[in-house]
Amino acid sequence: MHDKNSIYGLATDGVRHLVPYKPGKPMEELERELGLSKIVKLASNENPLGPSPRAIEAIQSFMKDLARYPDGNGFNLKAALASKLMVNANQITLGNGSNEILELVARAFLTRDSEVVFSRHAFAVYPIVTQAVGAKAVVASAAPDFGHDLAEMRRCVGEKTRLIFIANPNNPTGGYLSEAELGAFLESLPADIICVLDEAYFEYVDKPDYPDSIPWLQNHPNLIVTRTFSKAYGLAGFRCGYGISSPEMTDILNRVRQPFNNNSLALTAAEAALSDTGFLGRTLEINSEGMVQLTRFFDEYDLKWLPSVGNFITVDMNRDAAPIYDALLREGVIVRPIANYEMPNHLRISIGTRDENKFFMDALTHVLRNV
Ligand SMILES: *Cc1c(COP(=O)(O)O)cnc(C)c1O
User: Fold this and answer.
1) Which DSSP string corresponds to 259-270?
2) pLDDT band for position 370 (50/70/90)?
3) Nearest CA to ligand 1 atom 6
4) What pLDDT is recorded for position 4?
5) Secondary structure (3-state) at 94
6) Quick one: DSSP state of residue 222?
7) Ligand 1 pocket check: which of 198, 204, 349 to mutate, most ligand atoms within 8 Å of Cβ?
8) Which of 108, 298, 310, 342 is most open to solvent, judged by the fewest CB atoms within 10 Å of its CB?
9) DSSP per-residue string spanning 24-66
10) Model-wide pTM > 0.85
11) Strand pairing of 161-167 and 194-198?
């Protein structure tokens, strides 16, 4: 009875075999371990400019109201999002990060008999939320660039498929699907299969053939688009994301969420950040400059990288990347190894400020000379 194995035995099958999400190494942890004075973290696709100053200002004046419960319906933030996206507020679900939306969809629509289709090398949260509810993951093989192969994903759809996850752009590979490709895929899907379109990096994409997915919602009540304040808006620590879907799907998700899933400071900060277009503009500018800076460097070193439309870039180190990751840590640089995405030779590097990128490039130069 007191054997801890018996407690594991009580967990559901899915949970018992679950491998937890492995986040980027926190800066404080590396500081504790190695006592380094300077650390640069380029591991979790955070905004290197920090949060929008407008968001900071907004939460400072909100502090006095912290004894109150948040607005459980997030009225103000939903109204701001609805007007920006030109949808109705009853089409928006707020989540504790967009990860929570992914989980709500899984909890609302999956049973132990369901199958869920997603791509190999796609975002690590899809298998976790699938397995946590005991559903079965069907992993589609990827395209040659490690991105989604929609034809292959379509072939994986069967009788039991209830849900499909698509990341556009994808993390950790950085590529994207065009409006034509994705539109045709959606058209081909049976209406009783839920499709989650994860657009966590939406704001960064600057490609004419990248889809505007919101109009698709009109003809596809089975579609939900997810976005977040964690990346371009610089609020990863607050955990605020959202889903946009048909009013029916939104109603269903609202039934399973916790009553106060977004805290009041996060709601306040997100609303302020959404209005700070100047900050968003600077964010995108720093990102495209950093992308050029890093890709030039990789070219010089003959390291192959995957073209990315996000705020990160994934590089083939041409050998097991784990020792390089470790050596970079000792130099005070945290990047992201992605062996858990079945890409053991690649490292994913978030785009930082000019100085952070330089610090990383100097560290990598040093490391590559010594490994
Ligand atoms: C970062 C990321 C998310 C968003 O996470 P939050 O919970 O909103 O912080 C979702 N999907 C992908 C593909 C991501 O990379």
Assistant:
1) TT-S-HHHHHHH
2) confident
3) 97
4) 61
5) strand
6) T
7) 198
8) 342
9) PPPHHHHHHHH--S--EE-SS---TT-S-HHHHHHHHHHGGGT
10) yes
11) parallel
